[in-house]
Amino acid sequence: MQLDLQTNDHLAEVIRTAGSIAVIPAKLSPVDSFCAGAGVHLMLKSLEKKSKIFYPGAIPDGCKDLVDEKDIVSSFSQRQLTVSIDYSGEHEAKAWYEPETEILKVKLAPVSKDFDPALKVKTRLDTGFDFDTAIVLGANEFEDLGYMFTEIQRDLAKATIVDISNSGKNSRFGSINVVDTMCDTLSQLIVKRAPLWDLNITTEAAKALLVGITSK
Predict the structure, then answer these.
(1) Shared-domain flag, residues 145 and 71
(2) Which residue from 60, 127, 184, 190 puts its CA 20 to 30 A from 79's CA?
């Protein structure tokens, strides 16, 4: 199959300039997709890139030890309230909540009756994920990502999407599409193409990719 050198060069540049990368394996072929994603993630980490694997639910059998658990995002709720209390100056505080229909009210107050304005309370509403590039592996279209797509759809809309697939059913939904139907597995595709994207196949990445290649 003839290689699209322009696409490979473009993808190498996207990876080089990316600030934060979400690696998103689809579940159509769970072991192969996860291993291909793990291989990409590990190669990105070796370049000191900020990378996370987005994968809901249980990790496929045989894949649990391939990637550090802290590098896997498995919860995709878009609305999370973070409350920070500055305890410097030996302040103390208490907190309680009151459920009211579908609204949860959280209240904070100093333990002392004499309010001290030096007590600092900060709140932050997290409404999205921090990535500018998303590498989607093994999906024919966004909807193949299931409920995760619904939860991170707004984040994906702001990112450069890299669509990697070995299926002839792929709809080319990405900003960059790498579709190679001559590869039996996604993991084989990654082994074949990674050097063209200026990625080095490390020992850890090779282990993950081998599991994917032999999964069928």
Answers:
(1) yes
(2) 60
Note whether 66 and 135 are same-domain residues: yes
State which residues form the domain around 14: 5-77+128-213
Q: What is the distance between the alpha carbons of residues 69 and 81, in angstroms, rounded to a whole number?
A: 23
For the record, the structure tokens of 134 come out as 């998303």
Q: Are residues 189 and 155 part of one domain?
A: yes
Q: Classify the C-alpha dihedral 74-75-76-81 as positive or negative.
A: negative
Tokens of 18: 């990316």
Task: Enter the tokens of residue 69.
Answer: 């658990």
| pLDDT tens figures, 100-147 | 555 666 666 655 545 455 555 555 545 568 899 999 999 999 999 998
Helix axis angle for 186-193 and 30-46, nearest 10°, is 30
| Tokens linked to 189 | 């595709």
Total number of domains in the chain: 2
pLDDT tens digits, 143-164: 999 989 998 999 999 999 999 9
Amino acid code (one letter) for 191: V
**In contact, 166 and 183? CB cutoff 8 Å:** yes
Q: ∠ CA(162), CA(163), CA(166), 5° rounding?
A: 145
